[in-house]
Amino acid sequence: MKVFISIFGNLCWVLSIFWAYQKIIYQKVSFKKMCYVAIFYFGIGLVEEVLHTGEIPYYLSDLTGIDIFFFLELEIFVWCWIIAYTLFDKNLKRSIFLIACICSVCQQTFFILNEMLWFLSNGNVQIYYLLNLPMIALLFFTIYLIVEKLNIARIYREFEYKNFSFIQILGMTIIVLFIYDLLSYCLQMIPVKSKEQFLIPLFLMFIMILTMIYYIQMVSLKDKKKYSDMLLKQQNLYIQDLEKIQQNMRTFKHDYKNMMSSIYLQSKEGNMQEIESTISKLMDEFDEDIDKKMNLTNQLANIQINEMKSLLYSKITEINHQHISLHMEVLYPVQTIKMNIMDACRVLGILLDNAIDEVKDHEGDMNLVLSNQEDAFHMIVENSLFHDVDIEKIYQEGYSTKGTQRGMGLISLQKIIDKYSNVTIATQIVDNRFIQEITIV
């Protein structure tokens, strides 16, 4: 029974690590992958039992004179990273650093709860093991509070935007592991069965949580300012559009009066052909100048994500200034998408910028379709093509159809998409039109 509780407790601890990992990188928690984690866990245990690989940390400790705890923690980190890289995330930089952080926090939480149980059981082994099952539930609840309520995903996304190099990430990973191992080693020096054995790590975790709350507040204030600026910009663009529509209506009203006078004179002369020509011209001008703007405004009303709406207002204004023909459709209201919204806006912005850059000096046109369906969200950007494009090379560093740092080099776009296992991109050229589709499932 004791062995079963011990194995079950360790398995739950491992599962909590990968639940947190998926939540932080905005992946949907996969039951299938969590089952694979359990298989990995038992497989690793079997390998250690058969090949005696569990003795390696002890051998290294004897060889180097470094405390065994360091090598045991390093072994856990390596196995967890292998599982994360194999099952969840092929982003090397992110998986290394994030696993180091999550393992450290989860192990520290596990250690605090475990020491608390040992203290409460007063050294009674039977009571200690009976309390293990409630402790496992408390472990999951604590990790849930840390990840969800402290919005760790948002904190990590802010960190990721800094775009550190692999060497920097590796250095920070080593620092995280070193600090955790040093802390764990110091806590081992505390006398067993004393209150300090769990009060000190509990206090340290409390300080860590306070630090994260403070940082979240700073990030939140930054987001609020960015959001306010975005709303102000969006409102200004909206007002400008309304003013243009109003001005067009005034112009149309003036032209309408002149045309009505012309039609009246033509009717008196009985010139039906001229009357038909004048009415046709009147309808065409209305469709082109006013109806088009009204249609775009109606389409934008379906986008209920303010960041994306603000981006589209800005891009549509730029497209109008460039005198580029744009057809836009938003199929079904867009309220949420399964991707960080700032990354989604960066992706859409890159696609639109490349399309604008391709057609602005030619008589080309652009199509934009945003389709929000039950199973997936699609962004489709299509534009006329005036240069030869090698689809095999467009995601390579430095590739361009129009010179250095210009044109359709999409390496930055690919880097963003590589962060997400639920986001794909499809590129094709059909009838001299360049089409790119982003799918978020």
Automatic annotation (TrEMBL):
Q: Which SUPFAM superfamilies match?
A: ATPase domain of HSP90 chaperone/DNA topoisomerase II/histidine kinase (SSF55874)
Q: Which UniProt keywords apply?
A: Membrane, Transmembrane, Transmembrane helix
Q: Would the keyword Ion transport be found if you checked this record's keyword annotation?
A: no
What highest taxon heads this organism's lineage? Answer: Bacteria
Which regions span the lipid bilayer?
A: 6-22, 34-54, 66-88, 95-121, 127-147, 167-192, 198-216
Record carries keyword Lipid metabolism: no
Give the Pfam families listed for this entry.
Answer: HATPase_c_5 (PF14501)
Q: What are the residue boundaries of the Sensor histidine kinase NatK-like C-terminal domain, all occurrences included?
A: 339-440
Q: Give the matching PANTHER family.
A: TWO-COMPONENT SENSOR HISTIDINE KINASE
Q: Protein name, please?
A: GHKL domain-containing protein
Name the species this protein comes from: Amedibacillus hominis
